[in-house]
Specification:
heterodimer; A: 227 residues; alpha/beta; seven-stranded mixed beta sheet; 7 strands; 17% strand; B: 112 residues; mainly alpha; disordered C terminus
Chain lengths: 227, 112
């Protein structure tokens, strides 16, 4: 394998699933995993320390305060930069992303600077999210001319060399949309690959209120992000 | 009367915060000055009549609403800017601490 890819996994109150997800990744791949606990209020971090504290391939980081997914992702990227990783692959800690599909990302990141996953926006996605995703896609396509199959999928990878061009400011859930806008404005090439649609908890993730906040940020991204 | 009562309550609130050390003496006097002006204008609204004629505003109340909205907009913007700055700084600090703690842990596990 040419590119040294590292998995970055933001964690927030996922004590029930995160260990299983990491164990599966470690078992199936020779990848290093950077886990960023974003100030969990349950004992996620203690459980992580107990299970992976001595594991050489796992880096455990903890935010002393909850800053949001976007900020945790950025902390992960900072760590990857520090340990000389060449590419980052984001995987959710709740088991929403099938570790089996990491293989496809590893293959495609050899050829492309960015690889985005897209879910089938069909019946398996909860109705509110499906409509939210479609509306966001339409608005963003009209404003920025972005043709993306799934704007909100957090299963994606990029080479560290493109990070300065897509360095996001959103600290919470707007991060995927902001990255999509930055990618287009920077003229970067990307590849989209189909990933499984798994919904574990319909109350977690992007809510309708987060979607409104994302929409309110659009004018800033439209005028504020330079090409 | 309502306005005067409100100005008095605000003055008392400022006084308590000043005594607790939450606001500085300078900040306290500036706010007290603002609420004093507000109270005086509530007692003598006619003082503003030359100004409202000049600005083509019909009633003193309308001027009050316009000025209040301007102040609220300014304060909201200022608060927003300060919160964003605070969030940015907090994020930097939390990130720095998170990355630093890993370095220390790896050093220990390597026995260095």
């Amino acid at each position: 394998m040419g590119v040294k890819v590292m998995v970055v996994m933001p964690v927030y109150n996922e004590k029930g699933r995160v260990v299983r997800v990491i164990k599966r990744i470690l078992k199936e791949y020779k990848l290093e995993v950077v886990v960023v606990d974003d100030g969990s209020t349950d004992d996620s971090f203690d459980i992580l320390k107990r299970n992976f504290g001595k594991e050489k391939r796992v880096y455990l980081l903890r935010h002393i305060l909850n800053l949001g997914k976007g900020a945790a992702m950025k902390t992960g990227v900072r760590m990857v930069k520090k340990i000389k990783g060449e590419a980052v692959l984001f995987v959710d800690s709740d088991g929403q992303h099938n570790p089996k599909q990491i293989r496809e990302f590893l293959k495609e990141i050899e050829k492309f600077d960015l690889v985005f996953g897209y879910r089938d926006v069909g019946n398996r996605m909860p109705r509110v999210r499906r409509w939210g995703n479609l509306i966001a896609k339409k608005i963003v396509k009209t404003l920025f001319g972005i043709e993306r199959k799934d704007m909100l999928c957090g299963f994606f990878a990029f080479k560290m060399s493109v990070f300065p061009k897509i360095r996001w400011k959103s600290s919470r859930y707007g991060v995927e949309t902001e990255i999509a806008v930055r990618v287009v404005k920077s003229g970067l090439c990307f590849k989209e690959i189909k990933v499984d649609t798994i919904y574990i908890n319909k109350y977690k993730g992007v809510s309708i209120f987060d979607a409104v906040r994302i929409l309110m940020r659009l004018p800033y991204w439209y005028f504020g992000i330079k090409k | 009367m309502v306005l005067l009562f409100f100005a008095f309550i605000m003055g008392y609130y400022l006084f308590l915060n000043w005594k607790k050390g939450d606001i500085s003496g300078k900040s306290f006097s500036s706010w007290v000055f603002i609420w004093l002006v507000f109270g005086i204008l509530a007692i003598f609204p006619k003082l503003l009549e030359p100004l409202i004629e000049e600005l083509f505003i019909v009633r003193v109340m309308d001027l009050g609403v316009i000025v209040a909205l301007m102040i609220i907009t300014f304060l909201t913007l200022e608060n927003n800017i300060k919160i964003m700055k605070l969030e940015r700084n907090t994020e930097k600090l939390v990130r720095k601490l998170a990355v630093k703690s890993v370095k220390r842990k790896k050093d220990i596990s390597n026995g260095s």
